[in-house]
Amino acid sequence: MARPCRRPRGARERAIRLAASALVLGSMLGAAAAATPTPLFALSDFGGVIPYSAMARMCADRERDEVYVLESNVVRVFNAAGMEVYRFGHDVELGSARDIAVDRSGDIYLLCNPTGAMDDRRFFLAHCDYRGEFLGRIEATGLPPSLRDFSPNALVLAGDRFLLASARGLAAVELGRDGRFERAWDLAEIAGLDAKQRESAELGGFSADGEGNLLFTIPVLFRAFVVSADGTARAFGRSGSGAGMFGITGGIVRGDGGMLYVADRLRGVVIAFREDLSFAAEFGAGQGRDAFLAGPANVLAGARGKIYVTQTRGRGISVFAQGPS
Fold first, then answer.
1. 39-321: what fold?
2. H helix or E strand, kind and range, residue 185
3. How does pLDDT run across 266-294, given as a tens digit for each residue?
4. Do 166 and 150 form a contact (C-beta atoms < 8 A)?
5. Which residues are within 8 A (CB) of 254 and not within 5 positions of it... i.e. 6 or more apart?
6. What is the DSSP string of 112-148?
7. Residue 254 Cα to chain centre, angstroms
8. What percent of the chain has a predicted confidence (pLDDT) above 70?
9. Distance CA 251, CA 300 (A)
10. pLDDT beneath 70, residues of the chain
């Protein structure tokens, strides 16, 4: 009677390990596919896609499912379908507008510099109504001497407070609605930069989430940071060209379901991370015009899971639908 052929134990164990690895890989690929946002459209007017630059500034009115875009002192408002519905020009007598925010009532706030010159560190907030009509200036008051050179270029409206950040100064401040200083963060210290690193480092992106956490990236460190209200900081990311790795980091934002999105200008993708900061997926390298991103820089989370991304090459602002987390 022929004896059944038996596979050597070593070969059997290797086969089991390979099968297990295949199952794990399949599960990871399936989860990544589910978490990957799908392309929707680009912000447009009746003439077609608006060729915004990568440095265009955005903010979302989540109550009305609208998005405001600021570039060259012109603000345009887009509806849920990505079509322009309104625009207004910022009064040049108020200087140069650097960033924009909108509150729940629809009032608009512009971070302004009186001259627009790079060496002019002065700033104020221009308060406008929903039509863009100027209502008044909000000046920062009570800034400590250590912030006398503070010159912000980023504005976030978080509830009843303004958050302003300086990319080159690696600092952020919190102001009340009346402009009164509340607190400050030394982002360079939080990131662990030494004196030499401070000379060349700057922020790649800055925002805040609904829980009051500060979010920012520092490209030269290949790192992104989440800073809680009590000052606890969590860092994530590493240098590389593979999936989930950082080349040159740009904007960062918290989407629905706690997902974090980080734009990578060098790799040409937006990378998604779960709440525990583990890699979930990335998008922007797909085939076809809608799925492809060229040097993504700023990223915004809008209403109903929409993700807005600025980019280069005159491709404007692409909009994606967030996948399940």
1. Neuraminidase (2.120.10)
2. strand 181-186
3. 999 999 999 999 999 999 987 677 779 99
4. yes
5. 207, 209, 210, 213, 215, 260, 261, 301
6. EESS--TT----EEEEE-TT--EEEEE--B---GGGT
7. 8
8. 88
9. 8
10. 1-35, 287, 323-325
